[in-house]
């Protein structure tokens, strides 16, 4: 074998390794890509019909929303609230802990993100984008300073940005329309309705355990969400939809994330689940279950994930007729329609 031929062989081998590495790297990290958010994602609700019921709207949601900069066994999001809002997210799984004379977001352990920063982000975004509304789901509070959590909420947002409940909470939520919500926050708390003493607070369930007056259902069964991505999507996720069918309505959060049985790298787990979940959401467009889909919660939210979820509003006929093309063009920046 002559020298030139040997050099050619070595070159081909090295080129193959480089191409494989690049392709593998792009595919492996695709779910973490943060494509720049187009301006329309900050105001996508402006394209929704005013008379659309909130429970009929399809909304991108964020699981353990305040975990940016936590360790890889607790971090489920790598952006703060404002950046998530810019990428289309409108539902936030908000967990607040009182520690060291201040309030922080937490996920089992205390995070670095301060609760006041979260409130400032929400207030800034709603002030800048009055067509939008946000669902804050205070699933867990820790540290024994619950009332101060809501004092801070009122002080930062002002009571005019908080939606007060009139009459039965479940009836109120079932009949709430998008046009009535613009520029405001809908607030859910992980307590029975009888334990809540502020007019904007609404009870939410605990996993599969109903609470008195609950108007938000976010079902979670550990054995389901700790299964493989394929088994979760083929066997278990539809059971959550069936549970909602048996409820008395209210908002429905469909859990799109997996969880570890014990402790593990959440980013690594999402890496193997992301494309499967995106396909599941895409296929909901023609599914008989579409009528029950409301909020879809994801780990490591981004523009692509939001776009797959927002596409379902087209199938539900929630888009204003004169803004249908603009809405589709917004989504086409990230996904194929």
Summarize the structure.
This protein has helices at residues 3-28, 81-86, 115-128, 146-157, 169-174, 178-181, 222-225, 229-245, 266-271, 274-283, 303-310, 312-315, 324-332, and strands at residues 59-62, 91-99, 102-107, 109-114, 134-142, 185-189, 201-203, 216-217, 251-255, 295-298. With 337 residues, it is of the alpha/beta class.
Structural class designation = alpha/beta
Helix content: 25-40%
What fold name goes in the CATH topology slot? TIM Barrel
Number of strands: 10
Q: What is the makeup of the main sheet?
A: 10 strands, mixed
- Count of domain modules: 1
Helices and strands, in N-to-C order?
HEHEEEHEHHHEEEHHEHHEHHH
Per CATH, which architecture? Alpha-Beta Barrel
The average pLDDT value, as a whole number, equals 91
Mind explaining what this structure looks like?
With 337 residues, the chain is an alpha/beta fold. The protein has a single domain (38-332), classed as TIM Barrel, CATH 3.20.20. Helices cover 37% and strands 16% of the residues. It contains 13 helices and 10 strands. It has helices at residues 3-28, 81-86, 115-128, 146-157, 169-174, 178-181, 222-225, 229-245, 266-271, 274-283, 303-310, 312-315, 324-332; strands spanning 59-62, 91-99, 102-107, 109-114, 134-142, 185-189, 201-203, 216-217, 251-255, 295-298. Strands 1, 2, 3, 4, 5, 6, 7, 8, 9 and 10 form a 10-stranded mixed β-sheet that branches. A hairpin with a 1-residue loop joins strand 3 and strand 4. Helix 3 runs parallel beside helix 4. The longest helix has 26 residues, at 3-28. The chain is globular and about 50 Å long. The termini are far apart. Mean pLDDT is 91; it is low at 12-29.
């Amino acid at each position: 074998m002559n020298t030139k031929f040997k050099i050619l062989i070595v070159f081909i081998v090295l080129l193959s390794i480089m191409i494989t590495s690049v392709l593998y790297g792009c595919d492996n990290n695709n779910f973490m890509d943060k494509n720049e958010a187009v301006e329309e994602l900050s105001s996508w609700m402006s394209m929704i019909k005013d008379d659309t019921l909130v429970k009929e709207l399809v909304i991108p949601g964020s699981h353990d929303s305040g975990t940016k900069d936590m360790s890889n066994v607790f971090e489920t999001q790598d952006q703060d609230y404002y950046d998530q809002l810019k990428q289309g997210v409108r539902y936030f799984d908000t967990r607040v802990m009182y520690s060291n004379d201040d309030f922080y977001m937490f996920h089992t352990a205390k995070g670095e993100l301060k609760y006041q920063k979260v409130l400032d982000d929400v207030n800034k975004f709603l002030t800048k984008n009055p067509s939008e509304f946000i669902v804050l789901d205070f699933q867990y509070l820790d540290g024994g300073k619950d009332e101060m959590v809501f004092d801070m909420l009122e002080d930062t947002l002002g009571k005019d940005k908080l939606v007060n409940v009139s009459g039965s909470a479940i009836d109120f939520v079932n009949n709430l329309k998008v046009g009535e919500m613009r520029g405001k926050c809908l607030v859910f708390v992980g307590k029975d309705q009888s334990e809540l003493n502020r007019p904007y607070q609404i009870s939410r369930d605990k996993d599969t355990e109903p609470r008195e007056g609950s108007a938000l259902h976010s079902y979670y069964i550990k054995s389901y969400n700790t299964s493989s991505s394929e088994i979760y999507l083929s066997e278990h996720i539809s059971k959550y939809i069936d549970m909602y069918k048996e409820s008395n309505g209210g908002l429905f959060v469909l859990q799109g994330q997996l969880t570890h049985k014990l402790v593990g790298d959440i980013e690594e787990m999402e890496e193997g689940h992301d494309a499967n979940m995106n396909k599941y959401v895409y296929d909901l467009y023609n599914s008989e279950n579409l009528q029950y889909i409301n909020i879809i919660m994801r780990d490591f939210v981004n523009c692509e994930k939001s776009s797959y979820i927002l596409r379902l509003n087209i199938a539900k006929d929630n888009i204003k007729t004169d803004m249908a093309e603009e809405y589709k063009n917004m989504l086409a920046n990230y996904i194929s329609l």
